[in-house]
Structures are given as C-alpha cells and as structure tokens.
Design a protein that fits this description.
Blueprint (H helix, E strand, L loop, with lengths): L11 E2 L4 E6 L9 E5 L5 E4 L10 E5 L8 E11 L9 E4 L6 E3 L8 E8 L4 E12 L2
Antiparallel strand pairs: 1-6, 2-6, 3-4, 3-5, 5-6, 6-10, 7-8, 7-9, 9-10
C-alpha cells in the first residue's frame, strides 16, 4: 500500500479533538504529521520515520503554514480527512515527510510511530505512540 492521500482542504478536527498551536519552521500543510524540534526552539516541523528525533510526533497539522507562522495540530481525537478511506486500518508515520503509511509499509531502520487508525471512511482517530524502536 502507499501513503494515505489526504487533501488539506478536507482536514477538519472534530469537536472533541485536542488542538495545540506552535510556530512552524517548515512549509506545513493540513493532514501532515508534525513534531517539536527540541534542538531548535521547539519549532514545529514535518515528522519523518527515518530518524528517532523526527519520529516523535506531536500531532496532525490541521492548518497550513510557512516558516515563522503559527500552525495548529491535533494532538489526539478524531479528524475528518475526506472520504473513501478503508475503515479499521492502523497507520504509522511514514518515511515521507509528514506522511501516513500502513504499518506494514515501514522498512528496515525506520522508527515506528503509531499515529492512529481510520475510524470510518471519512474519519481518522489520532492516538500517537512513538515506540523509539526501529524496524529490524
């Protein structure tokens, strides 16, 4: 399988979602996974499964932004991401910056960060768990 294709304009947090805000240090679009860079003033950057530091996901961006601008992200809860997705699939952070991959798509050396599952054909349930473990 390939990464989920999430259209930024379809990303809307549900009312119970926990929304946080930070300052972007990347060009970020809604629907991408982000992390706080502790080595760089806790700026919000695109997460990536290729390095342990970048795999420490804090949430899914629900707004777009450019470097130096505010960005909002959902830390936990449900987010509407569009339509046509398969219900009940568990996903992880992918090796593509900010991407969402099926767990089975991770390859040797990538860091495993569970990000949630498709709750329905339109809703993604965010529950992040960065394991710190690499795929053997």
């Amino acid at each position: 399988m390939a990464d989920l294709v999430i259209t930024a304009s379809n990303v809307v947090p549900n009312t119970e979602a926990v929304v946080r805000e930070g300052t972007a240090d990347d060009v970020i679009t809604a629907g991408k996974w982000v992390y706080k860079d502790a080595a760089d003033n806790n700026y919000i950057k695109l997460a990536d499964a290729d390095t342990e530091a970048m795999s420490q996901v804090v949430g899914m961006a629900v707004t777009g932004s450019s470097p130096g601008q505010p960005v909002k992200y959902v830390e936990s809860g449900d987010v509407t991401i569009g339509s046509g997705f398969t219900e009940g699939i568990f996903y992880a952070l992918s090796a593509t910056a900010g991407g969402t991959a099926p767990l089975g798509d991770l390859t040797t050396g990538q860091y495993v960060t569970y990000v949630g599952m498709t709750k329905s054909s339109t809703v993604f349930s965010i529950k992040v768990h960065a394991t710190g473990a690499q795929v053997p």
